[in-house]
Amino acid sequence: REKKVTLCRINNYFCVSLQGGVNDEVTLTAYITIALLEIPLPVTHSVVRNTLFCLETAADQKENHVYTKALLAYAFALAGKMDKRKTLLDSLEKEAVKEDGSVHWQRPGKEPEIDLPYYRYRAPSAEVEMTAYVLLAYLTSQPAPSQEELSFASRIAKWISGQQNPNGGFSSTQ
């Protein structure tokens, strides 16, 4: 089966050195779009407009990884595209791991956690990051998040706070 690859270029530059844990063009484009919108460049800026067009096309693909969906949801929230944001958040909610009053996301095919006495499992950085991006997408709503969204977001924040190391930091590539 032939796989369709979406290549998103920003002014014909594609910086591979910024990828970190990213493994495809759509995810990197989402990172860059988020950075541009947080500057903040307006959504009417030609570069932002072009990246959002690319991301809207990519968001319709069913094969998107949960990490990519999290980034897309936050990018669309920043851009004020609340319908796209909601669609992605609804999809992400179906993939969420809900336990002990908290919510988080994990990579597909992940090994189960080892339950050992005196050992506190901490999630890998990619899981902390994607869960944090989902939290940002929930909290970045125009005009404001609903009470239901805030309630769900508090369950996400509970999980994230449980991932802190003894020094108060997190495992992250960001």
TrEMBL record:
Pfam families named in the record: TED_complement (PF07678)
Q: Which GO terms describe its cellular component?
A: extracellular space
SUPFAM superfamilies xrefs: Terpenoid cyclases/Protein prenyltransferases
In what residue span(s) does the Alpha-macroglobulin-like TED domain sit?
Answer: 14-174
- Highest taxon in the source lineage: Eukaryota
| InterPro entries with a match to the protein in the record | A2M/Complement_sys (IPR050473), Alpha-macroglobulin_TED (IPR011626), Terpenoid_cyclase/PrenylTrfase (IPR008930)
PANTHER family, alphabetized: ALPHA-2-MACROGLOBULIN, MACROGLOBULIN / COMPLEMENT
Name under which the protein is recorded? PZP protein
Native source species: Mionectes macconnelli
Q: By which gene is this protein encoded?
A: Pzp_0
